[in-house]
Amino acid sequence: MHGSPRLLVALDRVTDVGNLGSIARSAESAGATGMILEYRRAAAVGPGALRSSAGALEHLQLGRAPSLSRALDTALEEGLTVFGADMSGQRFETLPTQLLRGDLIWVFGSEDRGLRPSIRERATHLVGIPLAGRIASLGVAAAAAYLLHRTAEARRNVS
Known about the structure:
The protein is 34% helix and 23% strand. It is an alpha/beta fold.
């Protein structure tokens, strides 16, 4: 397992196995070392998710938490910055680069409802992606790929 800085991903009510696998693939390729899923309200880590992850789920440490809210509380107590993907959040480009280079966890919510209020309130920063088209949001897997790889880029470009 990689040391510091830690990059983790948590999923809030992402129940589609294809999305789970795609997010895991993006997370692992961006340098994340682990994912947090709730016992309930989460996709099963089975053949469909494994297939869509292209093997990434085999390289990530997976944790199942009874409560994502409590897991995020623990992450905050341990000094991780919690970023919540939310279309009404601040633009990625406005985030302080130093935060992106530290210990952090990205939280992605379900496609139809986004992050639950209890998860949103635990986020240190809510982050959105500016879009130019008529569609109001990206799918969760596409948003995760964008935000995770922008984070990886910021972590690589140390001045």
